TrEMBL record:
Keywords: Cobalamin biosynthesis, Methyltransferase, S-adenosyl-L-methionine, Transferase
Annotated SUPFAM superfamilies: Tetrapyrrole methylase
Protein name (Swiss-Prot/TrEMBL): Cobalt-precorrin-4 C(11)-methyltransferase
PROSITE patterns with a match to the protein in the record: SUMT_1
Source organism: Vibrio ruber (strain DSM 16370 / JCM 11486 / BCRC 17186 / CECT 7878 / LMG 23124 / VR1)
Taxonomic lineage from the root: Bacteria, Pseudomonadati, Pseudomonadota, Gammaproteobacteria, Vibrionales
Gene Ontology BP term (one): cobalamin biosynthetic process
């Protein structure tokens, strides 16, 4: 690390979408020095743990509830150990950092966050696409289907679909049929392109392509139930316009 480590705090580190080379250098260095690592086993590539010292204690949080996770962190900090909480993608999306931070605060322990590459970025890279395409779409909606965690009514898929912009839908592939139905009900034409990216940036990544009319069947046939993103919108289609940014007639000031 180029800055001094503060062992009185827990380091939350974004692990990236899967490829062990897609963690940040800061995250990598923290893993190299960590004494205690608590990782989300269902989504973290175990190859990342190879960066740790052989004597580091690594705990899979899939088997732990919140209080057990917090206890491991507190015990580590009290023993002057470097504690790293490794979470998939970036921490700022569906990361539940807040609740862990609140619990740590009750024990007078602070935390630092190290950004990661979110899976929606890994998925775009796999596909070699941009969510923003001149004159086609200039916005990206990141959302999920309502599940055990409800979504506010103003953020329902049906309402968002009215914008017909680019969408990256997390945590919802198990309900792909309902997702496609709601998006059509909300306003996307049935021929809108959809890509489902399973395990973006992992060696066993799968990319399924279709439209809102047929993607549910394709995903069901492939048996994909989790660890996938549903990407929707005309940014995946054929229409494209060159950007003004590199236009010979355009001022250089923003390049
Ligand atoms: N903080 C994470 C998201 C955690 S929620 C991030 O920034 O990516 C977990 C959901 O993220 C999964 O259900 C899936 O929808 C998505 N996800 C995580 N890793 C993925 C990957 N490698 N490929 C596709 N989707 C992924």
């Amino acid at each position: 690390m180029t800055e001094t480590l503060d062992k009185s705090k827990v380091y939350f580190v974004g692990a990236g979408p899967g490829d062990p080379e897609l963690i940040t250098l800061k995250g990598y260095r923290l893993l190299q020095q960590a004494d205690v690592v608590i990782y989300a086993g269902s989504l973290i590539n175990p190859a990342l743990l190879d960066y740790c010292k052989p004597e580091a204690e690594c705990h899979d949080s899939a088997y732990l509830h919140l209080q057990q996770i917090i206890q491991l962190m507190v015990d580590g900090i009290h023993h002057n150990k470097l504690v790293v909480r490794l979470q998939t993608g970036d921490l700022s999306l569906y990361g539940s950092v807040r609740e862990q931070g609140e619990e740590l605060a009750k024990q007078q322990i602070g935390f630092r966050c190290i950004a990661g590459v979110s899976s929606f970025l890994g998925a775009a890279a796999e596909l070699g696409v941009e969510y923003t395409v001149p004159e086609v779409s200039q916005s990206l909606i990141i959302t999920r289907m309502a599940g055990r965690t409800p979504t506010p009514e103003l953020e329902s898929l049906i309402r968002f679909a009215g914008h017909q912009t680019s969408m990256a839908i997390f945590l919802s592939v198990q309900g792909i049929g309902a997702v496609a139905e709601q998006l059509v009900q909300g306003g996307y034409p049935t021929e809108t392109p959809v890509s489902v990216v399973y395990k973006a940036t992992w060696p066993d990544c799968q990319i399924l392509k279709g439209t809102l009319a047929d993607i549910a069947q394709t995903v069901t046939d492939a048996g994909i139930q989790k660890t996938a993103l549903i990407l929707v919108g005309r940014f995946l289609g054929e229409e494209y316009h060159y950007s003004k940014l590199y236009d010979a007639a355009f001022s250089h000031e923003y390049r």
